[in-house]
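How a chain folds remains the central question behind the approach discussed here. The record that follows shows the chain in one-letter code together with its fold in token form:
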Amino acid sequence: MKGFARSSLALGISLAVMASANASDFADMDPVTLRLAHVVNEQDGFHIAAMKFEELVEERTDGKVDIELYPNASLGDERTLLEGMQIGTVDMGVITNGPVANFLEEMAVFELPFLFPSPEAAYEVLDGEIGQELLDRLSEVNLKGLAYAERGFRNLTNSERAVTSPDDIDGLRVRVMENPVYVDTFRELGANAVPMAWTEALTAMQQGTIDGQENPVNVIHSFKLYETQDHMTLSRHTYAPALFVMGMPVWNALPEAAQAVIEQAAQEAAEHERQVNAEMEAEQLAELREAGMQIVEEPDIAAFQEAVAPVYEQYGEQFGDYLPRIQEALK
């Protein structure tokens, strides 16, 4: 795992740099407030990551950089937040990878179905050369990529029936993110894929205008989806990163010392969230079962993989050399 070793070495060097930073580096800095927004609630992993980031940045800048958190889509949905960052009306956010890919198409390569066999494999790629290269490329669309937090492995829920194979999905109206890879993945599985913002999806599930959705366990738990969704399948069909991302107008206005703190704090907060997610998943699954959700733990993954093979044929070339490079790194 050379990539992991490299990222660990880089983290070690960054931590050493941070250890040498102290309050005096910020003595002459004018105080600045950064508004960090996300679209989920305060029980969600995004908020856990955001709180850790807030704590680290304020401590290491001696309070000169104040982070204000705006959860629950209070500043808009994810596309709105990203557009705001581009023009400087929103400072930063923790944003699901899918909407980010609408701004830099190649980011969607990470979300090809069944690409990553485990969280550890995903972290090695994201924290290594390939992931960092794509973070840097966000500057092409006036965004500053800071670090990869985590949405996690996504699983299917629905209100109609147990799903153990693609045949069971046929005809289900499934909400997916506004991202063509997700839309086409679920169309290949036989679903009526309905792209919509998360805030709209919650209402649509309550009203019964959609049958299901797909998200990691932590989202299914924190949004109490058992109230509208009777069935969950641990399909783990896609690993979804999330990003700590900032608008370039705001980033460029910060002094270098503050930039260094922010970048390192984002990485540490992301790793903290990953760890919390892993620790919480078993407990969350148990609580979902207690709430009445029927959970299929071992679906026919081989059948799902076969069904989505056309997605690789359709999108492989669109991502340039990123897909073969990731596949090589995973060997």
Remarks:
- The radius of gyration is 20 Å.
- Residues 33-330 form a domain with the D-Maltodextrin-Binding Protein; domain 2 fold (CATH 3.40.190.170).
